[in-house]
Amino acid sequence: MMNVGVVVALLGLVASSSCKLVVHNFTLPLCDSPEAEAAAQVALDFINAQHTHGYKYTLNQIEDIKVINKVDGTHTYLLELEFLETKCHVYNPKPVPQCDVRAKIETAVEADCDVALSEAGGQFSVIAFKCKTELETAGLCVGCPVLQPLNNTDGSQLVQASLVHFNKNHTLNVAFALLDIGRLSSQVVAGGPHLTAEYAIIETNCTTVDDDICVPLDHVVARHGFCHAEGHGLDLKVDCEIFPPDNATLPAPPAGPESPSTTHGFKHHKLTALHDPDATGLLSAESESAEKAPIVKRTVVDPQPNAVLDAEPVALLPRCPGKTKHF
Q1: Looking at the structure, do residues 8 and 127 belong to the same domain, yes or no?
Q2: Residue 167 maps to which CATH number?
Q3: Model confidence pLDDT, tens digit, residues 209-237
């Protein structure tokens, strides 16, 4: 029979929620540990800042984490993260925690990202990341809206017509220009297809749409907006929310007039596939790793002195993945 003192010592080793498994120069924290959450938050903020088209993302799950301990006392964190698209456009100043997550019934967008971060003195910085962005649906849904390519002709016409209607009817004494198409969808209903469009707009130097040449203002000083338009036959509805200039919350301006996701005919905006400016090779090494996550017990009832061990099996939980925050 195993010595009770040895068992107690082992249980005490794994009982804490912040315990780590150390293998040579690697540390394997729990995916739900505070340090994993802190690293994941820095990764999310960085990737959102790089994403200049479409919508902000939020963290759904920390799937794995590994820490490389360096001889100089610094650390390299390798994380596998799952993000979900929110309904906040990247130019919406609202903080991510206040943004609604798009449900599966609306065709959600999921991004699986591998991220490498450096840590020194408690401060994280992103070294590299790679992401794979895919659609997530609730299964077959007859009669539900269906996403259309971002360069869909009918959808683009709805965007242009609704923007002209908005510019002619608002009271802001300024004309707005199209900045970014976020989503286009269609639904089969009586009387023809019902089209829906979501798109971002930017303030121009024109006061009315009748001016000849309207040039978008610099992103730092321009007002931005986000519009939701619907079209069914001759019926047209559009509602736009205008955001005040706030360069502290805006990402860098888009590199070009259109997102690559739009020009390539995708149905959603994709995160950057690979960002590794220093060619670190860390992401490839991590993705090919065959290491298995050790089993770590998260909660343990304190054993009583001189107690006889219960013969019933003890439920163990994996070190990773962490808890799911949304779905």
Answers
A1: yes
A2: 3.10.450.10
A3: 777 789 999 989 999 999 999 999 889 99
